[in-house]
Amino acid sequence: MLEAAHLTCQRGERTLFTNLSFTLDAGELLQVAGPNGSGKTSLLKLLCGLSPPVTGNIRWQGAPAQGEDFRRQLFYLGHQHAVKEELSALENLHISTGLSGEPLTELEALGALDQIGLAGREHLPAKVLSQGQKRRVALARLLVSKAPLWILDEPLTALDAAAVNLIQSRLAEHLANQGMVVLTTHQALHVPGVTPRRIDLE
Fold this sequence. Notes:
By secondary structure, the chain is an alpha/beta fold. It contains 6 helices and 9 strands; from the N terminus they run E-E-E-H-E-E-H-E-H-H-H-E-H-E-E. The chain has helices at about 40-50, 65-70, 90-100, 105-115, 130-145, 160-175; strands spanning about 1-10, 15-25, 30-35, 55-60, 65, 75, 150-155, 180-185, 195-200.
């Protein structure tokens, strides 16, 4: 279970939200909605431990959401691609999964890149890929992640309809396996068999 209790978040002198609380159980998806600047990305960073709340606390499986044990159980996809420009799509995937403690075989990595629509581009340096293709490199990690908690910032951005359907199907599979997802998206979300919970920030 992921628990957030009485969270307050500030950016500079501005309070983005205050006294925000929720719980998320296995098999649940929480969609964080709101206009630009309302604090959606800031909330995700709090949940990941990338920044501290002004007040409140976050707990994972009953313990403070911090430390190596928590990070091993977390998959975070930020709004930025986090792709090394000089490395190939394949090298990026190997490095990112290895750093998260989930190393892949060559066959697994190539399969994920093929599935996400990068067949034939696996060995190209990321700097020659389009923005949409770079996003797919980042999203390939989603296809192979075994972490129970996924926190995703705009995972459907810059994807065509086929890739959107693939990601939504992968979310459904993860939730069916008792995973948990917190995400933001400006696009319509249709995860098969799942009714998302929702938090609206103002």
